[in-house]
Structures are given as structure tokens and as C-alpha cells.
Amino acid sequence: MIDTDAIKEHIRGILVALGDDPDREGLKETPDRVARMYEEVFEGMNYTNHEIAKMFNKTFNEDAGTAKGSDDMVIVRDIDIFSYCEHHLALMYDMKVTVAYLPKGKVIGLSKIARIADMVGKRLQLQERIGSDIAEILKEILDTEDVAVIIEGTHSCMTARGIKKNQATTKTYNLSGRFKDDVCLNMRL
Ligand SMILES: Nc1nc2c(ncn2[C@@H]2O[C@H](COP(=O)(O)OP(=O)(O)OP(=O)(O)O)[C@@H](O)[C@H]2O)c(=O)[nH]1
Ligand SMILES: [Zn+2]
To answer: Where does Zn(2+) bind (predicted)?
Structure first.
């Protein structure tokens, strides 16, 4: 679990290292605020993918239209999430996650897909790994390999520092099962 006391202590140390006075009015509550923010924005670090799969495993049997081998597809588009890059601890923003799967006898509650995407974003991440984590969790819940996760996002480590390309966005595709080699399916994404 996240060690809140240690975070407070280290944030205070960073304030000192920056040459500021951690006891001045504007900063005295900052270590506590940052620790509380980290508890919120890094909540997903408390759980494994398997634990997240168990947490949001709310499925419904769906006989009609979801026969094995059919071309039925569920797509949830543009789920907005935030994350933090593991290289700079910098914010990833304007992140839009699109998830598609081919149901194999059961469907997952739609809001659970968004909850899974949110929770996976709440870790120190790479955009590519956000996609593979979401895919791994959905494959476990839905009992199928036919899952696609597409993410488009902006990395503040690229827009607000370093190379400073503020129009640059990154798009990643995580395609499994039939999404890997079925061009017709991919055109519907
Ligand atoms: N593949 C991938 N790279 C990322 C992601 N987030 C940040 N990065 C990149 O991680 C790389 C880290 O590169 P380094 O050379 O170690 O870091 P740096 O010296 O700060 O590099 P610059 O960003 O080029 O100034 C950078 O190119 C970042 O743009 C991500 O989600 N996926
Ligand atoms: Zn970064």
C-alpha cells in the first residue's frame, strides 16, 4: 500500500532541496496535500491487474447476437483518463481510451470498462502499458482474446518541458485475438 507518511516526508525534502521554506504559510500544508493527491491519483498502484479484474467483474450472459464466431462487436469510445509517466512523473492528459471486444457469451457492464481504464491510469505508466493492462484485465473478465485497446493522449513531459512539442499526440494500439489480423474488424474500430 502507498506509504502516505513517507510521501509527506519526501515532499518536504523536495521543497527544502528546491531552496524553499517548507514551513512558510503557503507551503506548510503542501506535503500533506500532495500525499493525499498521490493516494487518489496513484490508487491503482495498490492493486494487481488480477485484483482489478476481480473488483470490476460484473458481466451479463448475452445469448442473443453474441454467438461464438459472430461479428458482433462492442466498442466504447473516448473514455477520458489521466495518468502519470513513469520516466518524469509528468501528467499524461487529454487521454482518450477506446475499447472494443467481441463478446463470447457474456458482456461486461459498460461503466466497468471506464472504471478499469481509470484505475489502470492511476499508476506510474507508459501509454503502451496502459493499453496492455486494460487488455489483460478485460481478457480475464470476458474470457476472450478478442480485445482491442486504442489510446490517444498528450504527454506533458513532451509538451511542457524537454522537446516542448505542444501539438504532439501519441496514439497506441493494443490488438489481440481476431483484432490482430482481421482487417475488416479493424476498419470498424
Ligand atoms: N514509449 C513511451 N515513452 C514515453 C512515455 N512517456 C514518456 N516517454 C518518453 O520516455 C523517454 C525518456 O527518455 P530519457 O532520454 O531517459 O529522458 P530525458 O533525458 O528527460 O529525455 P527528453 O524527454 O528527450 O528530454 C522520453 O523520450 C519520453 O518522451 C510513454 O508513455 N511511452
Ligand atoms: Zn515522461
So the answer is: 85, 88, 157
